Amino acid sequence: MYQETPNKESYYIHRQQHTCRNCGGIGHIYKSCPQPIMSFGIICYRINEDKIEYLMIQRRDSLSFMEFIRGKYDLNNIEYIKRLMSNMTAFERELLLVDYFDDLWNKVWYQPYIPKQTQEFLDAKDRFIKLRKGFYIQNQFITMYKLLKTVETKYTEPEWGFPKGRRRLKEKDVDCAIREFCEETGFKPNELNVLENYSSYEEIFYGTNDIQYRHVYYIATLTSNPFRRIIIDPNNPHQAREVRQVEWFSAEDVLKKIREHNVERKQLFIQAHKQVIQQYDLSK
Q1: What positions does the domain Nudix hydrolase occupy (predicted)?
Q2: Is the pLDDT of residue 172 over 50?
Q3: pTM to 2 decimals?
Q4: N- or C-end of the chain: fewer Cβ atoms within 10 A?
Q5: Same domain, 53 and 74
Q6: Which residue has the higher pLDDT, 14 or 71?
């Protein structure tokens, strides 16, 4: 059957129709985006007995534990594997030695069983089993147990941070931030007031995986019942899969909860807190 070869003009128009889910730009897709991986979130505050408090979420699993179980490492890059292990919690490190890989995979994805053995699953399982059994690299026998013994961890709990996430296709930045906040905290969109007179704040950094990220945060308050108890809903898949706890903290405690290597996030929060203080003083 004859099929007309598209000319350069129609090819260009077709490319122009592509919208990137990452940066929102036209003419390319997510996987070929030249920008850092972007997320949008909310720094929400309340006034409690004349003191400013901020809402934070704790991840259900540490980022490094998730990267490791998903097989996002090269078996030949021992230093990177050790870096991942050093950023896991002590409990997660124990799980690596005693649990079956399938159980760890289900834990990370918050599922009762493996519905489909994807290529990502098979590759990750192969790396995990090889590392647990041990293999030779440069005439040195490497095992998971040996690596865990050579690197320590100071962490007893997964990371704390502000609710955030990646945008959906053609979703506006602030709409993404609101949606992610509501999915992770359980609040409704009409209970959140994003303050338009506040600046947005962003951090650009390289993660432990050497990938560059850009996170943009908006300042917001709750429109009703800011002191209600926040409970993790096991029937909310977004929340149950990603969130362990949701709590309010003073500015001092926020800085303590952010891990020490997240320098950009600490600096971002300090600047945001200064603006909140200024606006709060003006409103008195």
Answers
A1: 35-271
A2: yes
A3: 0.88
A4: N
A5: no
A6: 71
